[in-house]
């Protein structure tokens, strides 16, 4: 009577083949993952500004005063922004700089809400968030005549 002992585990060849297949799949998936991550950063930037705009509008209505959202560095929205009272300078919110992949296009020098919750400047204001390298689709944040912001997929028209 002979006993058969079964061995468990992988041979070196099986392990090497599995690792090669995993490396090939990772190499194929990496560009899509990078594009997805940049797209998420763009969306997060637009959502952060949208939140700041809603806060500024709410504070303007609550205080019946002008509230401004201005870039932290003059004219450069990618460095972040500040939400503050125009009259007193009291700061309500602050956003830090974006990741290097995100750029802000076609943004005004500042966005100011009146005490009525409408924009001080007439017309529709738009801010575009895009990828520096063009890998992901841009997002357009537009503020309508009533002062409400809307974030949509695609470049601003």
What does this structure look like?
The chain is α+β, with helices and mostly antiparallel strands. It has a single domain (39-153), classed as minor pseudopilin epsh fold, CATH 3.55.40. Helix content is 33%, strand content 29%. It is built from 1 helix and 8 strands, in the order H-E-E-E-E-E-E-E-E. The strands form 2 sheets. Strands 3-2-1-5 form a 4-stranded antiparallel beta sheet, covered by helices on one side. A 4-stranded antiparallel beta sheet has the order 4-6-7-8, with helices on one face. A hairpin with a 7-residue loop joins strand 6 (125-131) and strand 7. The longest helix is centred in the first third of the chain and has 52 residues, at 12-63. The radius of gyration is 25 Å and the shape is elongated. 23% of the residues are buried. The model has no long low-confidence stretch (mean pLDDT 90).
Short overview:
The chain is of the alpha+beta class and 157 residues long.
Q: Note the quaternary state here.
A: single chain
- The CATH topology label is minor pseudopilin epsh fold
The fraction of residues assigned to DSSP E strands is: 25-35%
Mean pLDDT: 90
Biggest sheet descriptor: 4 strands, antiparallel
Spatial gap, N to C terminus:
84 Å
Tally of DSSP β-strands: 8
Helix content: 25-40%
Number of structural domains: 1
Principal-axis shape equals elongated
Name given to the CATH architecture: 3-Layer(bab) Sandwich
For CATH, the homologous superfamily is named as minor pseudopilin epsh domain
List SSEs in N-to-C order.
Answer: HEEEEEEEE
Q: According to CATH, what is the class?
A: Alpha Beta
Q: Tally the helices.
A: 1
Q: Tell me the radius of gyration.
A: 25 Å
